[in-house]
């Protein structure tokens, strides 16, 4: 499993909080893969790295959209979860390489909330909150409770 945080200036507190979120959601430990991180993307990898066949991408739409569009050929995971605003560019992909891509049900702006008010140490979206509430469900039931599969 890989988990990408696509935004600038991600604090160590947020990285740690998201690692805890991933553990609580999937029961998987992660580490920050510093060699694959950049100014706009922080990559967290599962331990072991093949623990779950998922890449989850969370962040601002220019970065998330460009990442998917530019890297679809190189993404090894079969399940791609994107939590971002304005996913129209991803929805317009002609060839998804037979990947299962899950996107927010809203195609426009998604809302971020102050996570400290609901027990998280990062700003959280409705989609992430719904996933968390449904974390005890089977994987695809949990994912489709918050997101829709791109056809």
Describe, in plain words, how this protein is organized in 3D.
The chain is of the alpha/beta class. It has one domain. The chain starts with a strand and ends with a strand. It has helices at 12-26, 61-71, 88-91, 126-133, 139-146; strands spanning 2-6, 29-32, 41-47, 54-59, 79-83, 100-104, 112-113, 124-125, 147-149. Strand 2 (29-32) and strand 3 form a beta hairpin. The protein is built from five helices and nine strands, in the order E-H-E-E-E-H-E-H-E-E-E-H-H-E. The mean pLDDT is 94. Helix 4 runs antiparallel to helix 5. 30% of the residues lie in helices and 26% in strands.
SSE map:
Elements lengths: L1 E5 L5 H15 L2 E4 L8 E7 L6 E6 L1 H11 L7 E5 L4 H4 L8 E5 L7 E2 L10 E2 H8 L5 H8 E3 L2
Helix pairs in contact: 4-5
| Record field, number of beta strands | 9
Query: Mean pLDDT, as a whole number?
Result: 94
Report the major sheet: 7 strands, mixed
- Helices, by number, come to 5
Rg (CA only): 14 Å
Q: Summed up, what is this model?
A:
The chain is of the alpha/beta class. It is 30% helix and 26% strand.
Defining key terms:
151 residues; alpha/beta; 9 strands; globular
